[in-house]
Specification:
The protein is built from 15 helices and no strands. It folds into two domains: 188 residues, no CATH class; 180 residues, I/LWEQ domain (Up-down Bundle).
Length: 387
């Protein structure tokens, strides 16, 4: 008869379908992504972009670490259900705090982040009592317990908030790559970090769809708020086209090979790298949503430097992350994505002082050409026999 701790573990032979509560957990990030785009649109400067990235990184890291947990542990058990519900609530609180996360709501933002990580360790650690894998959970708990100090100190001390949060993020991000080495508990081995490629690929696709949904939502809300105008309508249609094109570029052709690549790679390296690249791609989608909002709200206004930078940087970030993901899978670049990556900034700058609608149309055209060439497969990376 299985013990309570053994029932908690997810068996590799079981169907790795995404559970309802996992999808509910994903939906809690809609608010955060929407608020991040609002933060960026309110400050189209380098400082505004850095602030947005500083807030996006821990939000996505919450999603990634919980996703790893639902790959290792059965989402149908009471402990993991409690973890998902509590993490969804914490993610909503982080999203609500985003507009003032570096000011008046810093404690809400950092407190929710710390509570999710420590709560995960305590819940899973208690459920795994007596099982050898409990040591892995305790190592992770110790690491997040240590980084909770700079997170909370930064929340209380505005003068050192950003540096301390950056330090804490760096430690949090490097932990999985090192195996969370901990005194007296050792280091987590590769076998203990093994992840299901099929499940993880599905989860990455779902959170990316959430980010695209936020792009469509932002475009729709901006369009609703504008007076009936052909330019605004054209910009809204371009926004929809951009969402479709980014989606196509995300899933083809390397997207179908992501699962097998995760299965055969060292999980502490490849799976974590894939997570990092998704932060870059989702950051690109957030910036792209801001550019589309600007074009819808002011289609005939001349594109200033801030609008040009954010509209060009969004697709560029996405293409950079997507190209590097293709390279990680196939050990070579996607030439259409590389060409689009190089062309995007030049095309955006060429539309400086042109109507925002022209800027949106130009960047959309680059994405269209990249997606069309990628879809043909002519320039796609050839199989090496390892896919």
């Amino acid at each position: 008869m299985e013990s309570r701790s053994e029932r908690l573990l997810r068996r590799r032979q079981d169907p790795m379908r995404t559970s309802f509560l996992e999808l509910l957990f994903d939906l809690s990030f809609v608010l955060a992504l929407n608020q991040l785009s609002n933060v960026l649109s309110a400050d189209l400067t380098v400082v505004g972009a850095l602030r947005t990235m500083l807030l996006l990184a821990p939000i996505f890291w919450i999603w990634l670490t919980i996703t790893w947990s639902t790959d290792w542990y059965d989402p149908g058990t009471g402990a993991v259900r409690a973890l998902l519900v509590g993490s969804a609530l914490g993610s909503l609180l982080m999203g609500a705090a985003v507009p003032e996360a570096l000011d008046g709501r810093a404690l809400m933002f950092a407190g929710a982040y710390v509570a999710i990580h420590l709560g995960r360790g305590l819940i899973i650690g208690a459920a795994l009592r007596g099982h050898p894998l409990r040591r892995r959970t305790l190592r992770v708990l110790v690491w997040y317990g240590a980084t909770s100090v700079p997170w909370l100190v930064g929340a209380f001390v505005p003068a050192v908030r950003a540096p301390l949060w950056l330090l804490a993020l760096a430690v949090d991000f490097v932990g999985p790559r090192l195996g969370w080495p901990t005194p007296r508990l050792g280091r987590t081995g590769q076998d203990e970090l093994r992840l299901s490629g099929r499940h993880l690929t599905e989860r990455f696709q779902q959170i990316f769809i959430i980010s695209l949904g936020e792009l469509v939502l932002s475009a729709g809300l901006s369009y609703v708020e504008t007076a009936p105008d052909p330019g605004a309508t054209a910009a809204f249609l371009l926004g929809f086209a951009v969402a479709v094109l980014i989606g196509l570029l995300y899933v083809t052709p390397a997207g179908v090979a992501l699962g097998p690549a995760i299965d055969r790679a060292a999980p502490s390296r490849f799976a974590v790298t894939v997570g990092y690249l998704h932060i870059v791609m989702i950051a690109g989608v957030v910036a792209t949503a801001v550019g589309i909002e600007l074009a819808i709200a002011h289609p005939t206004a001349p594109a200033g430097m801030g609008a040009v930078v954010v509209t060009g940087t969004g697709p560029t970030l996405f293409l950079a992350g997507r190209m590097l993901l293709s390279a990680a899978i196939h050990r070579r670049f996607s030439w259409p994505q590389l060409a689009a990556l190089l062309a995007m900034p030049a095309v955006a700058v060429a539309t400086l002082d042109r109507p925002l609608l022209v800027l949106a149309a130009a960047t959309t055209s680059v994405l269209f050409l990249a997606a069309a060439l990628d879809h043909t497969g002519f320039f796609a990376p050839r199989s090496t026999g390892q896919d």
